[in-house]
Write a structure and sequence with these properties.
By secondary structure, this protein is α+β, with helices and mostly antiparallel strands. It has 2 domains: 3-53 and 268-406, no CATH class; 73-256, no CATH class. Helix content is 56%, strand content 17%. It contains 13 helices and 10 strands. The protein has a 6-stranded mixed β-barrel, surrounded by 4 helices. α11 packs antiparallel against α12.
Length: 408
């Protein structure tokens, strides 16, 4: 029997039992769709997080206090100034210290809980921020401890209404009124935070009027620095570390009381985490493929019993055991192949739906289906069909012709 005849007979047999074939194939379809959609969503999330982090700059370096170290010294404005003024960090382009807290902002009876950041004028350069209207925080604002604020687009919309200009209006933070002098460019929500939902004030004002629990008006939560280029990041990290060790009197062999991390490290960590989650979710989804394989075995065993007499007739007219076995394996192959292809289409539909829902929810997530994922899923579904179809095929091949012909 030639290969084409095997496929013709297999298709004819499967078509003769359309409902049973469809139900058998359904397990494979659902399994492949689950794998495809999970991998696509995971890949999309990874790409989204990576692009959002890189959008903030590839030459960023963050310095924070390591409070797990005993007798740590908190970072201060003086530490930040020393990085640029000491001359010991030629690889550093700009430095922007900041303090952060959460507070309620009030305007005309509207309340909004948001992040309040005390920053310096260099923050715009280091963190790649720009205003769509008004101006940014200036050095004069810092020197005068001015009660002015630059707000994110979401804050502007929530407090002042869509389409209205908040510039010049005064909102309340704590016990003081702050005049809105600028509105930040809209960036959209990200997995690492959003500048759309924050309020920026001069760092000197924040330290005196808003953040009083630090115990010192000089203490900062974070020092953001920009290296001259992405190639000088390692040099900049080394220079910053040496300056801070000298200022904090950390001797050789002792643990640093600060942490220095680059944007590249954040990107790598985020990519690694999303990669592990993607594999984990894909593995869970693949379990449903195994369930579909069990369904194939079950249905094909039933088919062998139903077609016992047919098997006996084939053997009586010269069909070999191998021919009978191949006949049933081809049927399992077809179920796995078409189930895999239909599962890919269903997975693509689910992924597209998730992307649309994410877009409606203002979340930057675009599920991505890769060729590797499609190929892997289809090959896996075919393998499941063949593996779970092997036992029924062998069972059919081993039937004795005389016994099979006696079956009614």
């Amino acid at each position: 029997m030639n290969s084409l005849k095997f496929f013709q007979d297999a298709l004819s047999s499967l078509y003769a039992n359309k409902l049973r074939t469809a139900l058998t194939m359904l397990g494979i379809i659902i399994g492949v769709a689950a794998v495809i959609s999970m991998l696509a969503i995971g890949q999309g999330a990874s790409s989204s997080i990576t692009s959002q982090i890189e959008a903030m700059g590839t030459n960023l370096i963050y310095v924070s206090t390591d409070r797990s170290v005993s007798n740590f010294r908190p970072l201060t404005l003086a530490d930040s100034d020393a990085i640029t003024s000491s001359g010991g960090a030629p690889s550093v382009l700009a430095v922007a210290p900041s303090v952060t807290t959460n507070s309620t902002v009030t305007y005309a009876g509207s309340n909004l809980s948001t992040s309040i950041m005390g920053i310096t004028p260099e923050y715009a350069t280091v963190r790649n921020e720009s205003v769509q209207s008004g101006r940014f925080i200036s050095q004069e604002d810092m020197n005068n401890y001015a009660t002015v604020a630059v707000i994110g687009s979401e804050v502007a919309e929530e407090l002042f209404g869509s389409g209205s200009s908040p510039l010049g209006n005064k909102m309340r933070i704590g016990n003081n009124l702050y005049q809105v002098v600028g509105v930040l460019e809209k960036k959209g929500g990200t997995a690492v935070g959003s500048s759309d939902n924050q309020v920026l004030v001069p760092i000197t004002t924040a330290q005196v009027r808003i953040i009083t629990q630090t115990g010192t008006y000089q203490e900062v939560n974070l020092i953001s620095t920009a290296a001259v280029s992405a190639e000088t990041i390692e040099s900049a990290i080394s220079e910053i570390s040496n300056i801070l060790r000298n200022r904090h009197n950390i001797r050789a062999g002792y643990e640093d009381d600060f942490m220095v991390m680059s944007q590249e490290a954040f990107t790598e960590a985020a990519t690694q985490i999303t990669g592990v989650l993607t594999v984990f979710l894909g593995g869970i989804a693949a379990i449903s493929l195994l369930v579909g394989g069990i369904g194939i075995m079950n249905i094909m065993l039933v088919a062998v019993i139903e077609r016992t007499k047919e098997i006996g007739l084939r053997k009586a007219v010269g069909a070999r055991d191998r021919d009978i076995m191949l006949q049933f394996l081809v049927e399992a192959f077809i179920i796995g192949l078409f189930g895999g292809l239909l599962g890919v289409l269903l997975g693509w539909g689910i992924s597209s739906l998730v992307s649309r829902v994410a877009t409606w929810g203002n979340t930057a997530l675009e599920a991505k289906i890769t060729f590797d994922a499609v190929l892997l899923s289809v090959l896996f579904s075919i393998s499941v069909g063949l593996v779970f179809g092997l036992y029924p095929a062998r069972h059919a091949a081993r039937l004795e012709p005389v016994e099979a012909l006696r079956t009614e």
